[in-house]
Amino acid sequence: MSDQHWPERTAEYPLECDHCHYPIPGDPVASDDGRYCSVACREADDNTTLPDPQAYKRVVTGVEPIDSLVPNGIPADSFLLLSGDEGTSRAELGIELVWRALERGEPAVVVSLANPPTATLERFYQNGWNVLPALENDRLRIIDCYTHRLDDRDGFRAQRTEWPTFLGEAAADAIVEVRDPSDRSEVTHSLTGALDDLEMSETGLVTIDSLDELERVFQDRQVHEFVEEIRATVCKARFVPIVAAASTADEDDIPEAEYVFDGIVDLRLTEQRAPNTRHKQLAIRKLIGAQFLPQWIQYDHEPARGLFAASPNTGRSTQQGYEVGTELSQPDRP
């Protein structure tokens, strides 16, 4: 097939490879049944055609303040750290990211270290988000790294009131108990097993509710090694993003934050001119492979609505959450 049979190439509409779907930088590789950027793609296309990378390599989170700062989406192979003060709705942000994934019809896995599974699920209900259908449809898993740290697990279960008892029974098949949370390999295998069961590849989201708790459970450099391992096997191999939360109070304990994580979202409380007033602000400190607005944005949180960008003066919602004309930061390089 010759060039004359293909659409005219322009800067805005370059020719795309029929296998990898990326632009063809030079002349296409000759073929009778398609156009390819390389011999490797032409030969691979005889067996399978890759999906369009735009379908899975970028994630629009559905969380207004984050999406307003990262308008083109977060790379799906990212390990993100939510680093924030107490009182910045850091936990609510992690829960909302999972809910928005479920809303998109995608699966999700929550690694629960700070709370028992029923308390983790209750965070959704406190926001008006019913996750029972997702549990029944096998789209949500909870990796329970909390319960087996209790001395009296039976007593804990016996003392639960009617609602958490019902919730625990309804979610029983979706809860993966980690019997030794201090064993890094068991936590890793529990996570990868849940990903396999939910067929999570190029779809979905994983959240870890507390790296601070993980630091207390693990020993020595195991948090660093755990983060590096699941970043490679989950984010980079499967194109499933991971979001982990940590308190800035324990930031010195976070394993080389600037190095290990692909992106860091900072959340803070700031003093305002009005007396006794503190507002929440959010910013992207780094994000490899994506453009973002390098500035602080004020936000608030409401049940059902989740996090929303707010006007600095009134606290009301804004359309964009940032000033018109602000230039995007260029993507960081790995």
UniProtKB/TrEMBL annotation:
Any one GO molecular-function label of the UniProt entry: ATP binding
Entries under InterPro entries matching the protein: KaiC-like_dom (IPR014774), P-loop_NTPase (IPR027417)
Organism: Natrinema limicola JCM 13563
The keyword Iron-sulfur is assigned to this record: no
Biased composition (Polar residues): 311-321
Top-rank lineage group of the source organism: Archaea
Keyword Transcription: no
Region (Disordered) residue spans: 309-334
Signal peptide: none
Gene3D superfamilies in the cross-refs: P-loop containing nucleotide triphosphate hydrolases
Domain KaiC-like: 60-290
Keywords linked to the UniProt accession: ATP-binding, Nucleotide-binding
Record Pfam families: ATPase
Name of the featured protein: RecA-superfamily ATPase implicated in signal transduction-like protein
